[in-house]
């Protein structure tokens, strides 16, 4: 029975729709129009974050029979938007075929995830790794084969080039304790772990992922390196199930066990999709050097796979405990050996990691905190080479089912392109830094400065809005987990390929040329230079020269320095370069339907 609802505050100061049993008995009947209307609304949209009259919104969207909605929408909502769109699943008011009142949806068939969901009334367990300190300690003593600046480094955690990325990923554990509603979730395993390990059971779970990602971007001003693993987990969940349905394999059962293990320990899972690719005019089989793609080199009698190959641009891989290996493109029958998906521990024998460079990264080795711009947090990428790496059968989730490679890639990119809401978190930092530097420069009241700040906010919220639209529009897959709206996910990522660059330009405009000509921090150690610099670099009265330097170095760090890797170039090429999004937008924009709508209004009859 659907119950009338009201808005109640939750612990995280947001609001949620919850049953309210104190309403008049006449409204409790399941066939009552208000009951149906509110139930349908509660199923499809999240409650606003402030007190509103849910009944008014519901009546406006789905009026009672023989009644019309009032001319003015509640809370200033645009009437046309509600009438045309309705809710994401219903397709608008035109989709309500039986009556203007939304009927309760039919019960859906149970899925693998439905049968695994942890009951709300059961006790929840705590995982092995809970705190940032425990996570950092878990990275030590693994004796990885890592090469940094030409030297073999087995213990990398405290290396000055690597530490900011370790601390940045540790923030994903801190947020889980500081704000558990956002940063953590209860998995089907019954453990409360990082939300990055959660298989999305509802569209609201997708929304909470987005909220967490933006907040972490705001906290760190950098890439916190866990989105790929989160999105690989959700993409693999559905794909393994689909393969089993066609081929009778046991991949999904294996994947369930693997994720349950990761949840129970609260591990970091990295996702490895991008191959080195070699000559891109040739497919995998015809490459001169076969190891530019990960592939099955041989098999043992017990089903163990022997892998060779490489993955590029692997974000946060050293800070991960396991990698989920996936094919990175559509494959044909002759490329069956490249159609492999599996889980591999980061410290497995036969793996070599070659650390990637970042702009201005050596400043971390010079000893100056100010000159780094953001000394606390940074990103991490590495090239990963696989040389006869053994994968036991229990960790193999695709082996030769080449026809599912493209589906896996497209599902992963739907999740991952929506995950670029993290850039809105970094954009929040850019907006704040731009406002601070304008104030320090004494120009904050100029009209053109205010307009530039408005433009930054406008661009940044476009990124966030399209990501949230993709999450809110999520739909259940046959395996039970929810997939974001694919069109909106691609529009979000396409925005990200452009807007951060414009935000960076505006921020540099407000900072001025001193951002790139500012003397080094060491110059303040020289008595003569220090006196001159303190005298000549003063800005607005009451602002110290040091604070002016700090904010300029932060902007430099995010637009030209090591965190520009995550904010700019990764925005352009991560999860596929711009043309990849345009291909999917063209496929999904449903041009014929729009043409028919235009012809109908124009009175054209073909």
Q: What characterizes the major β-sheet? A: 6 strands, mixed
**Total strands:** 16
Q: If you compute it from the alpha carbons, what radius of gyration comes out, rounded to the nearest whole angstrom? A: 26 Å
* Beta-strand fraction estimate: 5-15%
Roughly how many Å apart are the termini?
Answer: 48 Å
- Average pLDDT, all residues: 87
Spans of at least 5 consecutive residues whose pLDDT stays below 50 are 1-104
Secondary-structure-based class equals alpha+beta
How many helices? 22
Query: Quick one: overall form?
Result: globular
Q: Which range best describes the helical content: under 10%, 10-25%, 25-40%, 40-55%, 55-70% or over 70%?
A: 40-55%
Give a description of the structure:
The protein contains 22 helices and 16 strands. Strand 8 and strand 9 (305-311) form a beta hairpin. Residues 1-104 have low confidence and may be disordered. It is α+β, with helices and mostly antiparallel strands and 606 residues long. The protein has a six-stranded mixed beta sheet, with no helix packed on it. The protein has helices spanning 33-44, 54-61, 79-85, 112-116, 132-138, 163-178, 180-183, 203-220, 227-247, 251-265, 369-372, 405-418, 422-440, 447-472, 486-496, 499-511, 514-517, 527-536, 545-559, 564-573, 578-588, 591-602, and strands at residues 5-9, 15-19, 146-148, 151-152, 184-186, 192-194, 269-272, 295-299, 305-311, 322-325, 340-345, 351-355, 382-391, 396-399, 475-476, 482-483.
């Amino acid at each position: 029975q659907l119950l009338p609802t009201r808005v109640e505050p939750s612990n995280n100061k947001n609001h949620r729709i919850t049953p309210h049993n104190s309403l008049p008995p006449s409204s409790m009947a399941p066939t009552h129009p208000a009951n149906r209307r509110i139930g349908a609304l509660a199923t499809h949209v999240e409650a606003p974050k402030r007190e509103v009259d849910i009944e008014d919104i519901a009546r406006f969207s789905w009026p009672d029979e023989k009644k019309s909605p009032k001319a003015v929408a509640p809370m200033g909502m645009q009437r046309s938007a509600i009438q045309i769109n309705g809710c994401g699943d219903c397709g608008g008011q035109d989709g309500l075929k039986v009556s203007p009142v939304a009927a309760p949806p039919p019960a859906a068939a149970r899925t693998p995830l439905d049968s695994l969901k942890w009951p709300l009334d059961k006790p929840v367990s705590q995982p092995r790794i809970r705190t940032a300190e425990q996570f950092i300690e878990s990275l030590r003593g693994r004796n990885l084969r890592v090469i940094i600046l030409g030297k073999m480094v087995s213990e990398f955690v405290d290396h000055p080039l690597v530490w900011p990325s370790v601390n940045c990923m540790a923030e994903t554990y801190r947020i889980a304790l500081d704000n558990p509603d956002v940063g953590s979730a209860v998995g089907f395993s019954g453990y409360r772990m990082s939300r990055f390990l959660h298989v999305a059971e509802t569209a609201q779970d997708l929304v909470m992922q987005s909220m967490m990602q933006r907040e972490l971007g705001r906290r760190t001003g950098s890439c916190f390196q866990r989105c790929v693993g989160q999105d690989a987990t959700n993409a693999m969940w559905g794909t393994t199930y689909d393969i089993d349905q066609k081929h009778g394999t046991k991949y999904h059962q294996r994947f369930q066990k693997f994720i349950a293990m990761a949840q129970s320990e609260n591990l970091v899972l990295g996702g490895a999709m991008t191959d080195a690719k070699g000559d891109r005019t040739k497919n995998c089989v015809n490459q001169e050097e076969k190891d530019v793609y990960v592939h099955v080199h041989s098999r043992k009698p017990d089903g163990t796979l022997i892998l060779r190959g490489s993955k590029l641009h692997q974000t946060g891989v050293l800070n991960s405990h396991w990698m989920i290996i996936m094919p990175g493109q559509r494959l044909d029958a002759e490329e069956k050996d490249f159609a492999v998906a599996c889980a591999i521990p980061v410290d497995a024998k036969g793996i070599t990691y070659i650390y990637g460079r970042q702009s201005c990264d050596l400043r971390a080795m010079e000893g100056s905190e100010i000159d780094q711009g953001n000394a606390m947090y940074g990103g991490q990428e590495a090239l990963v080479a696989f040389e006869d790496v053994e994968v036991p059968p229990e960790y193999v989730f695709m082996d030769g089912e080449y026809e599912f490679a493209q589906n896996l890639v497209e599902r992963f990119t739907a999740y991952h392109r929506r995950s670029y809401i993290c850039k809105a978190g970094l954009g929040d930092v850019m907006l704040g830094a731009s406002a601070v530097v304008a104030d320090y420069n004494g120009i904050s009241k100029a009209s053109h400065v205010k307009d530039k700040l408005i433009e930054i906010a406008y661009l940044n919220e476009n990124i966030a809005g399209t990501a949230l639209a993709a999450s809110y529009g999520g739909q259940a897959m046959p395996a039970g987990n929810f997939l974001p709206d694919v069109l909106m996910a691609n529009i979000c990522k396409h925005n990200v390929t452009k807007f951060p660059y414009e935000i960076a330009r505006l921020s540099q405009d407000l900072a001025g040329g001193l951002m790139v000509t500012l003397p080094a921090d060491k110059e303040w150690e020289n008595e003569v230079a220090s006196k001159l610099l303190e005298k000549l670099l003063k800005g607005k009265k009451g602002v110290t020269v040091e604070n002016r330097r700090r904010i300029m170095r932060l902007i430099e760090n995010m637009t030209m320095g090591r965190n520009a890797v995550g904010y700019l170039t990764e925005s352009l090429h991560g999860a596929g370069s711009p043309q990849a999004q345009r291909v999917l937008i063209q496929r999904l924009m449903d041009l014929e339907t729009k043409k028919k709508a235009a012809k109908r209004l124009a009175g054209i009859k073909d």
